[in-house]
Amino acid sequence: MRWIALPFLLFLGCATSAAEGCPAPGSVVEFFGTIGNGLGIGMNLTFEKDRVSGSYAYVKHRKEISLSGKCVDGSLALEESDASGKPTGSFLGNWTKPQIVEGTWSTADGKKILPFHLQRLLPGDRVSGRYMTGNYLDQKTGTGAELDILLLDDGQLRIQGDAIWIAAAKSSIHTGDVDGTAKLDGDKAIYVESADSPDSCRFTIRFTNRAITVTDDNGMCGGMNVTFEGTYVRVGPPTFHGPPN
């Protein structure tokens, strides 16, 4: 049986009006979610009374799309627009739970209508998530890496992930994996598999908006040519494949 640690702490949400269901004025809320059949998106919204503004991006394309609209009595209505201000689509949804918004997304002409699901992140937590390198996201090659990261109550990070390197014509496949903790220091964390071994896996993680950059991989985190180095984008909440090592 596969054990999965659900990161419920991430989704307790920010200050919310019990009467209306919308976040309190002044709240800045980050969401993960999907449109249609699992098309991943990330969304940032600022709530000011009944007005809402922000942007969202498809995980695969990572291009920000402007949003504006209203949130009244637990109902969220957003219009998206392109760089010229031309409407390109809209979101209509409701808070079905304190941390979840569900509804429909449609094109500006209304010819395409898809369901959407959003789940919001704990305010102040800008590091937890599931991260993938561009190669994994584009699915053009199996070479790349993914990391699940969760901010713990004591300021430590739970880190788990896999990396793979595939030779030309798939003549050789090498893999690596990590599972442990690291201390968050500002926007940086240094992962060390074992402090007692100078040859153990080690790399540095730097956090930016919805992304991380991994550097200083010492080449000890897997087989030949395997590395966790690269730029990753956040694609959702972390999902772990077992208890910590």
Write the layout of secondary structure elements.
Elements: E1 28-35, E2 39-48, E3 51-58, E4 65-72, E5 75-81, E6 87-97, E7 100-107, E8 113-120, E9 129-133, H1 134-138, E10 144-151, E11 156-166, E12 173-185, E13 188-192, E14 202-208, E15 211-215, E16 230-236
Antiparallel strand pairs: 1-2, 1-8, 2-3, 3-4, 4-5, 5-6, 6-7, 7-8, 9-10, 9-16, 10-11, 11-12, 12-13, 13-14, 14-15, 15-16
Describe this structure in words.
This protein has 245 residues and is an all-beta fold. It has two domains: 8-120, Lipocalin, CATH 2.40.128; 129-236, Lipocalin, CATH 2.40.128. It has one helix at residues 134-138, and strands at 28-35, 39-48, 51-58, 65-72, 75-81, 87-97, 100-107, 113-120, 129-133, 144-151, 156-166, 173-185, 188-192, 202-208, 211-215, 230-236. The longest helix has 5 residues, at 134-138. It is globular. The relative contact order is 0.16. The model is unreliable at 1-20 (pLDDT under 50).
